[in-house]
Structure formats: structure tokens, C-alpha cells
């Protein structure tokens, strides 16, 4: 019985596959109208659509209508479960020339050597309407065919969690873009921002609102929110030159394009930034958000007194690596410790910053003995698990093999020294010194006496000359400011000047110099602020706009130098600009 059932089903399955193959190969060619009834002051859109590619398309004569635009061509192709889906459309925009009933005649296309024709369609044109809704001008077509979109990776991030924003310009296949320029770049207030440069504009296929479009990525930026609550991302605005096909034809029958300038905007986006939870927050938490590893290492553990070793406190991983303080080790007081040198090796991708940061301490022991470096802890918040984590390093023992000991007995023994005579320290006092008397009026009336009397009179002209000289120097305000500014610039930019020619070292030193200057003048920790926050602080301190912009531009150059080539000439220009900016800001502050 079972075998008979399968024998009956096999022909049915074969027939089903045959029908499916037939339907897949079946050619369709049809016409679609935007409306079948319209006012004489309205516009009609006519689409001729086929499911397979064809040639020799012939449009109807459109009796009773005037062709405003077209034919514009759009192609859509996709593969779903191994089945190819294809669509090709010729579009026209028509304007009625008279009232009445008209027929959109048959169009023809040749597909695989066979000619197919569309069915005629009836259209009724009435009297003018009050509000025409289909007046498709060049600007109307550009509005429908051009869209700027800001794609945000996360709408509800935590404080200091990375959020990527990608700006894409979508362009319909029916038009072309010949040029664009930014009108208004967004200011990321309350965010620490890091641009990811777009080195090349690559057009890619995509869809917008279900329709086939091509798009290019214009701008990429990673944001770290610095405040909880609702934060707005300002829109990016562009002026785009668009070429739209018209109904006119040139001598060779090709469509004539009309150009228009359109302004597109990505629109404002709002993030709902969540505060970091208070529950379970470690006491040593310094603001690190992400996924990190932590370790404390030393260059060696066995050495002699007066030799040096390096202790490194390092955090590596992915997160806000530039926005938190590294923990400080607790070292024994008998070890001489120098100020740490900060090292940074961080790169930024759309998923956020990743790499490592470290503080390198130079340690010099003075006495023999064993010195423990206690474990150091580092805490961070993991936004994936929404929990805090604390990592601890191992205890490190520094073994000083040889050198003086620091015990009290040693100090006493070294303070006792054997007295050695040279042979003439202890002599008898002479009882007859052979002294001779001097006259009671020896000084008075002598040349020295009169010289001391005349000396103040001689010093008066010298004092007058020095006083005038000092007044002249004090009156030279510009000269004094220049000298002071030069001293200030040399103070903060000395390391950067030494590194001229080495791009990475120069811009690291220049960025530190700029931040250290602000720390000294404004008494702030600039590592906690974004460039916009720094600009806001300078504005509050009455620093003029040009100086603020040049200062922020220098900070941006320091960041861009990690990813872009910079010449020696540009490094020298940035160094000179930094000297001028520090000089100007110092006078204004």
C-alpha cells in the first residue's frame, strides 16, 4: 500500500516542479500608473516593469500628454533561497495637455528574441484641482532620490560607552551626484568624539525604504557620552549638486540632464544615556568602561643599590582607554620613585577604541634589602554584563642584592670617624705677639675716608641711568610679552621641538604640552573633557574665537596624526602655531 502511494505522488511532484520552472521562466511586462484619474494641473507617473532583462524598448506616443521627464531606468536584482528575483523599470513623468479620457498605449520590449507588449491603460483628466500633488519638478525628483542618513549603533548606551555614528548618502539609480560639500558639521556637545577618516568614497548597492538605492559612507565617528540623560546628536547637513534626466534629448538621442543644488540633512538623533549603577561600584573605580585586562610588571626584580628598574602599570583591551586614570602602585618609602611616563597605543574602529595605555615608573633603591610592591587593583564597568569587575596584580618582591643597609647601627658606625692629625693643628699660643700700635686718627683724614664720603655722590648718576633703563624696559609692553610668551612656549613645547621629524613622538609630545598648559592655566584635568568642553571653558575665560579654533585644530591634528601621514613642513607649522596660540592665550587668560 505504501509503495503505491509513492508511485502516485511522484508524478504530482514532477508536475509541481515543472509548474515552478515554468513560472520562473515566465516573462511579465506590465504598465503601472500613479493614478487613473487626475486634474489637468497634476502630474502622472507611468512605470513599465519587466521581470527579465530586455532590449529595444519602445514607449507609446502618450497622446494627450506631454513628457516632462523620462525615461529613467531602475534595476533591482536579488537572490533568495537560490531563486533569482529581477526587476527592470522604465519611468516617465507626464503632464496632461487637455481634459478628457485618454489611453496610455502599448509599449514593447524584446526579451530573449521575443517581443512583448504591455496592456493599454485608460486615464481620465478632469478640471484643475485646488492642491495638485504630482507636480514633479527637477527638485521634486531630487528630493525623492536623495537621502542622508545617520546610522547610530546604540540608542541607550551607558555613560562612557562607545557609540558609533555612520553617515550614509543614499542616491537613487535614476539620478547622479556630481559634487557635494558640508554645510554644517555636527558639534558633539557632551560627548568625547573620535573621527575615523574616510579615505575613499566607495559606492555600494543597498535599499532605502524598500527601494533599490546606491550609497556612500561620508563620515564615521565614535562618541563616548560624558553625561547621563537625553543627549542630542546634531545633524550633518550637505549641499549636493544633483543631475536629473529630463524629457529632452540631445543630437544622439540621449537624455539631457538638468542640474540642481539640494540641501540634505541627516536629522537630529537622541540618545538616552544611562547612568552607571551605584550598586556594586568599587571604591577605586575611576571611570573605565569596556572590557579590559590589567597587569603590573617590572623590568627586573634582582639588582644592586643605585641601579634602576622600570615598573609598568598597564591596561589593555577595548573601551574608553583615553578617559580614565590608571591606578598608582603603593611603593615603599625607601625606594626613590620618579614621575611616571605615560605611553599610549590606541586605535579607534567603529566598535570603539582598543589597544593599551600604561604608566612607566623609574625606581632606584638606595639600600640593600627586600622591598615588596603590594598588589594593585583596577576596576571597570562591563556594559555587556552591566556589572563591575575588579582585577588585581600579583605582589612583586624587589631584591636589592648589594649596597649600604638602612639600619640604625650602620648610621651610627658611619657617623664615627677616626681623627687624624696633620702635625700643626695643636700649637702653643705665643705669649709675645710683637704687635705695633697705630695712630688714633689713622682712618680719619685718609684718602679712603674721603672716598667713602664721595662714593654716594658718584652713585647718583649711575642710579638715575639704571632707573631710566628699567622704566624703558617696563614701558616695552610688547617686548616683555614676547619674552614671556617665548619662555612659556619653550617650557611647554621643549619636548615637542626635540621630536620634530618624528611624527608619532612629535604629536604625542605636542598633545601633552597643550593639555599640560591648560592644566597649569585653568587648574583642570583636561583628560576628562572633550574638545567641545575645552572650547566651552576657553569661551568662558574670554578667549577669542580664532584662538579657540586654532587650539582645538591643533588637538585634532594630534589625533589625526595617528592615522594620517604628516610632513615635516606641517609639523613645523603646527609647532609654530602652538607657540603663537600659547602666547596669545596666555595674554588673554
Please render the helix and strand layout as text.
Elements: H1 2-25, E1 29-33, E2 37-39, E3 44-50, E4 55-58, E5 65-80, E6 83-96, E7 100-104, E8 108-111, E9 114-117, E10 121-126, H2 138-145, E11 146-152, E12 163-171, E13 176-184, E14 191-196, E15 204-208, E16 211-225, E17 229-233, E18 237-249, E19 255-265, E20 269-273, E21 290-298, E22 302-303, E23 309-319, E24 335-337, E25 341-349, E26 352-365, E27 369-373, E28 377-382, E29 387-392, E30 396-400, H3 408-415, H4 447-475, H5 477-498, H6 503-522, H7 531-540, H8 545-560, H9 568-588
Parallel strand pairs: 2-10, 22-30
Antiparallel strand pairs: 1-3, 3-6, 4-8, 5-6, 7-10, 8-9, 11-12, 12-16, 13-18, 14-16, 15-16, 17-20, 18-19, 21-23, 23-26, 24-26, 25-26, 27-30, 28-29
Helix pairs in contact: 5-6, 5-9, 6-8, 6-9, 7-8, 8-9
Helix content: 25-40%
Query: What is the number of strand segments?
Result: 30
Instruction: Let me know the average pLDDT.
Output: 80
For the record, the CATH architecture of the largest domain stands as Sandwich
* Percent strand: 35-45%
List low-confidence stretches: 17-24, 408-426
For the largest beta-sheet, the strand count, sense and barrel status come to: 5 strands, antiparallel
Backbone CA Rg: 42 Å
Helix vs. strand class? alpha+beta
CATH class of the largest domain: Mainly Beta
Please work out how many helical segments DSSP would assign. 9
Number of domains: 4
Shape: elongated
Kindly report how far apart the N and C termini lie: 100 Å
- The CATH topology of the largest domain, please? Immunoglobulin-like
